[in-house]
Each structure stands twice: as C-alpha cells, then as structure tokens.
Amino acid sequence: MLNLSHLSKTEARLSLRQISRSLPTEYFLQAGQEICKTVLCLSQYRQANTVFCYVSTQKEPSTIPFLVQALQEGKQVAVPKSFSNGKMIPCHINGLEQLSPGRFGILEPPDTAPAISPKEIDFSLIPCVGLSLSGQRMGQGGGYYDRFLPTLSSPFIGCCASALLCESLPTEPHDIKLPLIVTEKMLLFSH
Fold first, then answer.
1. Residue 179 lies in a domain
2. Strand, helix or coil at 163?
3. CATH of the domain at 112
4. What pLDDT band is residue 191 in, cutting at 50, 70 and 90?
5. Would you place residue 14 in the very low, low, confident or very high pLDDT band (cuts 50, 70, 90)?
6. Which domain holds residue 114?
7. Which of 4, 127, 130, 161, by CA, is between 20 and 30 Å from 35?
8. Are 125 and 56 in contact (CB under 8 A)?
C-alpha cells in the first residue's frame, strides 16, 4: 500500500494520477460495479430520500451503475454543477440523458436543472484521486469538495479505487476526513 505522506500534496496528486493513468478503463468500470453493490446495501443509502453523487470520468470508479439504480429506486438524485469561482451546486436530475460535458469535460446537468440545498441531501458519494486509511481525501486540487463537504449535514462516503488507497497522504488543517471509505474490495470506517 502506498505511503505518500512524505510528499507535498502536489507531488502526491501527480503520483496518484500517474497510477490512475496506468490502469485500464475496464478496471474502473469493474471497480464501480463492485462499489455500487456495496453502497446500495448501506443503511445510510437505503434510508436516504435525496442522494448526491459525482459523475465519474473514465479514470474514476464508475458511478453510472449507482446513479442508474438510485434513479430506478425513485430517489431524488443530485449531481454537481461546477462554476469558475471554485464552487459547485448539487442539481437535481431525472435521468442520465440530461447530462452533457461541462467544465473540465465532466458530465454535468443543464443550466436549467433545479438546485438542491445541501441540507436536503441525505447521503453523498464523494470522489477521491486517492484516499488514506485514516479517511484523508486527496482531490483534484480545485477545492470544490473542500468547500462543499462542510455544507453537508448528512452521511458522506469516500469512493476510491483500491489501487489508489494509501496508508497515508499529506494533509493540511482544513482537510476534512471522510468517516467511511469504499473501494471495490472493502468498506472501512476510517481511523
């Protein structure tokens, strides 16, 4: 397991991105399917009416199975819409066909999608470039989730490919620990 705590955040992020790029897209599709199976069984998800989930890129565990299932189950589903000021807003979608490439080429809801208050969200699945066993999250570096996570008052879970799970990562005081971590191989409470 990786130990990147001796690196700067920038160096650790670059290292994790190199590992991610070296992995086949099929790995992330399969990881997403396994993660979906685990998350759909969690009581925190089962009890939620409104769920928030990132829309995955090709080099992240696929969230498409999760989004499809949540929509089929009649959950209110919100996905992020990002803005140039480093903020993102959770927006309601009724189906994946509403999504189109937005900032950074990531699929996003249309401008007409209704915003959902973070206080309305009952459960969230959060993306990670890498995650440590203690729940420290390494994001893409834009600070979008650093600003978003404190607005949530409900359970959130870090989603990461097991190949990017680390023993430790460099951290800063403002970093928010994720209390629950899911990979395609395990579900763990951070320590």
1. no
2. helix
3. 3.40.50.10420
4. low
5. very high
6. 2-128+146-163
7. 4
8. no
